[in-house]
Amino acid sequence: MADGTGIGDPPDGLTAAEIGMWQAFRNGSVYDLRSGDATVDDPHGGHPWGPERSVRARIVCWLLLDGPPALAGRVSSLKLAGVQVTDALDLAGGTVVPYTEMKHCRFEKEIVVPEARFTTLRLVDCAIPRFEAARLHTEGDLHLPRCRIHNGMRLTDAHIGTDLLLNQAVVYRDRRGNSILGDGLSVGQDLQAEMMESHGMLSLRGAKIGVSLSLRGSLLTNPYGKRALNAPQLTVERSLYLTPAGLGNPSLTSGTTPARGTRVQRFECQGGIRLDDGRFGDAMDLTQARFTLQSDQELSLRRVQTPELRFLGEAPQRGKVVLSGAKIVTLIDRSASWPGPGCLQMGGFTYENLVPQGSFPLSLRLSWVAAATAEYNPEPYEKLATVLRNGGEDADAREVLLAKQRRRRETLPLAAKLWGYAQDWTVAYGYRPGRAAVWMAVLWAISAVAFARADHPAIKPGEHPNWNPALFTLDLLLPVIDLGQDSYWQLRGGWQWFAAVLILLGWILATTVAAGATRLLRRS
């Protein structure tokens, strides 16, 4: 192909459409080949675009890699609208300096930009067979909003200088079942993928996001594999949003939570989610999220660390929610968000504050702990009791510890189990000291009536006070305290055994009352 006669003139052999694109590039203006008919211009529709709207991929690459100089007073840039690019657009390893923006375009074959360098690359509402961009480097943004990518996209180890935008994009799986493969991806600021559809596995293993990761209103579905989102060791400096997006005109994909009353589209995931070992600097927000899991799939948050977890979505009907080893400062949750027994694992899960939304009585909180412990494990009970006690709810903390003892009792042999029932019925394992005081009063009354009929000869005749069965009984029941009664009288036969049992019960009950009182004084 021979060059034109003037510097920067179009070379010979270009089509009319390519000559127009060449001139628009030098002028820095938008090259728009749309017809004005929405049906015809739809890049995702079936209406064919002829040669008058087509340019060859290698001419596009020529402009981007080694294009002509800009006209005087202009900045060269490639801005296309309604253009069809034939053949594969291959810029692998190249350095692209001009600003690049393509809107409402069709690509006949894949876009290949691995190890390429761009300032900013914007592809808006384009039809793309595949986007291959491993180790891509941009100084500014990479935008792919409303694009449809039919055979997946690869962004492994890519570095995006500022924002990565995938709002309202639709990405289908590649031959390996991946929709977006972004392992090792680095994004300087936000990764916004709001109201996006991912049909296949979205993988962000070891990715690093400089500000926030937003999947507001998105649909992740992967009927072909175990997980729809696979993002272990993900680092997000601010927040992860799996929350609703506002439905407006246009849709509210602005990175903000919709105002109250706005019609919304929930985040929905059909398939497993793996966020193990993730680090989230501000929060993980799962408000109104919907998870559809199979029996062998999980919402896995193993060992995640974040100051705030907003677990406010819908409870999955199947599968498991796993929080084993997670470290949370503040847990904000609803009772209806947690799955039932056998579907929740919380071994080693630590949190410092509980902020329930709506009604979450202690009975349901205890059911929450029980659901996480198919076999008896004291740890979740003790953690909950500690958090409640630190929050000033000492009575609730005692109820939790009592529930722990009752759960433990079911694992004991028969004799220990019977003794446990006796402790529970009489003194509630010592966690209800008021009940022990009542039992002491009952024992005192019954024993006083009984001792009124007992034979009680004096140990030293003439050296004893008047017989008082109520004080004598109280002297036996109260350990340590000496009321000066029991040392003056002697009992015989069965009354001796009765007195011995009364002394033993007195020690048990008094110790329980003292322990309960000590706990109350410690809290005050």
From TrEMBL:
Residues that span the membrane, as ranges: 497-521
Record keywords: Membrane, Transmembrane, Transmembrane helix
Domain of life, per lineage: Bacteria
Protein name from the UniProt record: Oxidoreductase
Species in which this protein is naturally found: Streptomyces kanamyceticus
